Amino acid sequence: MDIVTHLGINARLCGTPVSTAENESSVEMTTLPEMAVDDTGLVHGGFIFGLADHAAMIAVNHPNVVLGGAQVKFLKPVAVGEAVTAYASAGPLDGKKQVVTVTVERAGSSVFSGEFTCFVLPQHVLAGG
User: Fold this and answer.
1) Is this structure's pTM higher than 0.85?
2) What is the CATH number of the domain that holds 57?
3) pLDDT for 29-44, tens place per residue?
């Protein structure tokens, strides 16, 4: 399946798609030194959230999809140099709304889980003022 959304995203910071299917995706990323918040190499949660959001957008895979809200849990810390993969599964489209469940794993162990509420708009969110 061709990806038609978020084509300009920075893969180094938000992950690289590795599989796509209708209403599903997986996106992987190896965390970088510039993602660390301190000398221990703890990765800022915003980068893990960004990876999960990227996977959610691809699961919906519409050029005008936007994130409306998220309920998330950070389950385990992630360190610089670790490989993480986000797995997303989108539920049915309900009008403009589509709910996507995402888990992020490191070596088969969950480090993050969330439910992303996405909206598929008739035009780009920045179009037409």
Assistant:
1) yes
2) 3.10.129.10
3) 999 999 999 999 999 9
